[in-house]
């Protein structure tokens, strides 16, 4: 025998391979976005709390509060200009006798009414827009919470050299590992 292992101790080697790719299955609730949107429609900010995005709640209430504040302020100023103008037309207020707008003429009062009426209406539209954005944000955020984000799916830009004219080209590479 040419090869013999007499006198040598044999050592047993065990090799374990650890699987690094683990797949966790997450149950998707298809009603979650609708529930978040409903909660935000009932009480603004409740959909953000349902999605556990608590930092968005002060933004929602800040936007709605500012919109309501400017609506009421412009509405008050509009009524002040309108009451002054109406009082001058029916003769109950004489020009110069008013404590608020006595220095303005009738054209100035009309311009003031139009200015504050336009800003009041714009404030109402902005407040309604913030309310609708609150609902849309809760719905989209609930959809994105169910979005699959892992290393097996990646998109990255790539710069490569064309073999025919040796010019550099740009491209987008989509990689999905099973």
Write a compact overview of the structure shown.
The protein is mainly α.
The number of strands is: 2
Low-confidence stretches: none
Structural class: mainly alpha
Which strand order spans the largest sheet, edge to edge or round the barrel?
Answer: 1-2
N-to-C order of helices and strands? HHHHEE
Query: How would a crystallographer describe the biggest sheet?
Result: 2 strands, antiparallel
Domain DUF5683: 30-178
Pfam family, one: DUF5683
InterPro entries: DUF5683
Protein name: DUF5683 domain-containing protein
Question: How would you describe what is shown here?
Answer:
It is a single chain. The chain has a two-stranded antiparallel ribbon with strand order 1-2. Helix 1 runs antiparallel to helix 4 (106-145). Helices cover 51% and strands 10% of the residues. The chain has 4 helices and 2 strands; from the N terminus they run H-H-H-H-E-E. By secondary structure, the protein is mainly alpha-helical. Strand 1 and strand 2 (168-176) form a beta hairpin. The mean pLDDT is 82. It is elongated. The chain has a domain at 32-148. InterPro entries: DUF5683 (IPR043738). Residues 30-178 form the DUF5683 domain.
Sequence-ordered SSE layout with sheet pairings:
Elements lengths: L31 H11 L3 H5 L6 H34 L15 H40 L7 E9 L6 E9 L2
Antiparallel strand pairs: 1-2
Core attributes:
two-stranded antiparallel sheet, 4 helices, DUF5683 domain-containing protein, 178 residues, mainly alpha, elongated, DUF5683
């Amino acid at each position: 025998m040419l090869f013999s292992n007499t006198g040598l101790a044999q050592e047993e080697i065990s090799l374990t391979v650890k699987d690094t790719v683990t797949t966790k299955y997450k149950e998707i609730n298809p009603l979650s976005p609708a529930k978040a949107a409903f909660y935000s429609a009932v009480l603004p900010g409740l959909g953000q709390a349902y999605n556990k995005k608590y930092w968005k709640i002060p933004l929602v209430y800040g936007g709605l509060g500012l919109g309501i504040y400017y609506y009421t302020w412009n509405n008050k100023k509009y009524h002040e200009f309108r009451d002054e103008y109406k009082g001058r037309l029916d003769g109950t207020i004489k020009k110069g006798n008013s404590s608020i707008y006595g220095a303005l003429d009738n054209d100035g009062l009309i311009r003031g009414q139009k200015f504050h009426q336009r800003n009041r209406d714009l404030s109402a539209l902005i407040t309604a827009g913030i309310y609708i954005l609150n609902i849309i944000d809760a719905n989209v955020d609930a959809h994105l919470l169910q979005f699959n984000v892992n290393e097996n799916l990646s998109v990255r830009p790539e710069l490569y050299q064309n073999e025919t004219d040796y010019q550099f080209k740009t491209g987008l590479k989509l990689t999905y590992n099973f």
